[in-house]
Design goal:
The protein is an alpha+beta fold. 35% of the residues lie in helices and 30% in strands. It is built from three helices and four strands, in the order βαββαβα. Strands 1-4-2-3 form a four-stranded antiparallel sheet. Strand 2 and strand 3 form a beta hairpin. Helix 1 runs antiparallel to helix 2. 18% of the residues are buried.
C-alpha cells in the first residue's frame, strides 16, 4: 500500500490541558494517521523538529506518560502552543477525516 505524507496539520493549543494533548494525538491515530514528528517555530533557532512516530493509542499512551511524568516541558511551550505535525496516511480520505475531526475539536489552525 502506498503511504502519503503531509505536513499541513498546524495545531493551536496554547490552552491545552494534558488530556487535550493526548486527545489531539488520539485523533490522528484513531482516524488512521501516523504522527511522524512535531515541529515548532522558534523565534531565534527557527524550525525545531523532533521525531514522534506514533502509530496507535499504545504509542500515544507511552509518549504522554513520559511527557506527564517527567519535569520536561512539551516543545509547544516555546511557541505559545502553536506547533505542526507531519502525518502519514494511506489515502487522501484519511487526511480529510483527520482534518475534519481536528477542526471539530478546535485544534486545527489551517
Amino acid at each position: 500500500h502506498e503511504r502519503l505524507v503531509g505536513s499541513e496539520m498546524c495545531i493551536r493549543d496554547s490552552s491545552h490541558t494534558d488530556e487535550q494533548i493526548q486527545d489531539e494525538l488520539y485523533t490522528f491515530v484513531d482516524c488512521g494517521g501516523k504522527v511522524l514528528d512535531v515541529t515548532v517555530m522558534h523565534e531565534i533557532y527557527g524550525a525545531i523538529t523532533v521525531d514522534l512516530i506514533l502509530n496507535n493509542r499504545v504509542d500515544v499512551d507511552d509518549f504522554t506518560t513520559r511527557l506527564f511524568t517527567t519535569p520536561a516541558k512539551p516543545l509547544k511551550e516555546l511557541t505559545g502552543g502553536n506547533h505542526m505535525h507531519t502525518v502519514e496516511a494511506s489515502s487522501p480520505e484519511v487526511f480529510d477525516r483527520i482534518e475534519e475531526q481536528l477542526k471539530k475539536k478546535g485544534y486545527l489552525i489551517r
